[in-house]
Design a protein that fits this description.
Strand content: 5-15%
Number of strands: 7
Helix content: 55-70%
Structural class: alpha+beta
Low-confidence stretches: 260-270, 356-368
Distance between the termini: 63 Å
């Protein structure tokens, strides 16, 4: 049998023993340790060297005093060490020679170093070092190596306890850090989930509000012209059907984020509409409502982050929806102004614009209040800003500035 084949199972068995000892009740472990210390302290008199006396009842009782307090070493470490500190020199002075190794004292000193505060640790260490020296001086024919052996053993037990204390503190710090990181990951996951749900809600609001507004406008116009102009009525109903189909298609796309991923780990949803789809949006609004809508572009277009593209499309969609629902406008203009660091999207109509709220001469009521809140949230999510109010020539205007990729990091950071 090779050394490795013997060593590996032995290490595994030792790990199992240590793991079981950690999960055992502390009193069981400490009672077993006290019995082991009493047995080791009694061996010297049970099997004495030539010329030594065998263990007496008095000596055995003193040995019991060095072991039994260890049962409470974790609940009252300092008091337990004090009791052992009294019985150990008494046992050493009662017998000649004193015990070869103060087993109970080593365990007590180790426990104090692990569990007690600094002041108690220092007091106990000094007491044991001074007590060992005095006990050795009281013994006749004490050899110099005996001083060195006892003092070194006490210092070693104390140092081992300090190392164990540091290791326990380090392990506790790592476990606490791991728990904090786990809580932070859970919090980040919950925050990301809430943000994604809010984004989905905003998208669904924009899609439904836009489609329903167009459908309502056409449905109201249909009965008026159904007898006088059947072709126009038919076009209105076709526009209703087109708006409904487009809304259903976009809703299926949005709700795809709520479906489970496929077996290959990718989602089945299609890409969201972006700036390239604004021309189609403008044409759809113009065809469905009869509103004259114009799309203008200045500057050099360039790619934007996907969420910024979606935000620009949804802002234009919401602004045009507000125009159809609230402004009573005859024309609207969508402008895209490209600069080096941002895209400014402006939607202006020639409707009635902001009106004063009844009973409040100082307040101004703007159309589409909830929609404007959504526009501001979308702009802020991309690191941009939004403003709305009366247009330069009357009517109502919504202007949103969306930073480009390089400028966006600074805006969000």
């Amino acid at each position: 049998m090779s050394a490795q084949s013997w060593f590996t199972p032995a290490v595994s068995r030792w790990r199992v023993v240590v793991s079981r000892a950690r999960t055992t009740h502390p009193y069981v472990v400490d009672t077993a340790l006290a019995v082991l210390v009493l047995f080791a302290a009694s061996l010297q008199w049970m099997f004495p060297d030539e010329g030594d006396d065998r263990l007496s009842w008095q000596g055995f009782l003193l040995a019991v005093g060095t072991a039994v307090p260890l049962v409470w070493r974790r609940r009252a470490p300092f008091l337990s060490a004090c009791a052992v500190s009294v019985f150990t020199p008494a046992m050493a002075l009662y017998h000649a020679p004193p015990p070869n190794v103060a087993y109970g004292g080593l365990v007590a000193l180790y426990t104090v170093a692990v569990l007690c505060p600094p002041a108690q640790r220092r007091v106990m260490l000094v007491c044991w070092l001074v007590g060992a020296a005095l006990t050795m001086m009281a013994k006749e024919h004490a050899q110099p190596f005996e001083y060195a052996f006892h003092l070194t053993s006490y210092l070693g037990a104390y140092a081992l306890g300090i190392l164990t204390r540091v290791q326990s503190a380090y392990t506790a710090a790592l476990e606490d850090r791991a728990r904090r990181l786990e809580r932070e990951r859970a919090s980040d996951t919950a925050r990301a989930t809430a943000q994604e749900r809010a984004r989905i809600a905003r998208d669904m609001h924009d899609i439904l509000a836009h489609a329903v507004s167009l459908m309502v406008v056409q449905a109201e116009a249909g009965p008026v012209v159904v007898r006088s102009d059947p072709e126009r009525a038919e076009a209105a109903f076709d526009a209703i059907a087109t708006s409904g189909r487009d809304a259903m298609r976009q809703l299926r796309r949005i709700l795809g984020v709520l479906k489970e991923e496929q077996a290959n780990g990718t989602s089945a949803r299609l890409p969201q509409p972006g700036i390239a789809a604004l021309a189609e949006l403008v044409g759809q609004v113009a065809q469905s409502t009869g509103l004259r809508v114009e799309l203008r572009t200045t500057g050099t277009p360039r790619p934007l982050p996907p969420d910024t593209e979606v935000a620009a499309y949804r802002v234009a969609q919401e602004a045009l929806t507000n125009t159809v629902k609230h402004a009573y406008a005859s024309s609207a203009r969508v402008e895209l102004d490209w600069t080096e660091d941002a895209l400014t999207l402006t939607v202006t109509d020639d409707g009635r614009g902001p009106v004063r709220s009844p009973g409040d001469p100082g307040a101004v009521a703007t159309p589409g209040g909830h929609g404007l809140i959504g526009i501001r949230e979308r702009a802020a999510a991309c690191g941009g800003s939004a403003r709305s109010g009366r247009g330069p020539g009357g009517g109502f205007q919504v202007a949103v500035r969306l930073p480009a990729a390089a400028d966006r990091q600074a805006a969000l950071g």
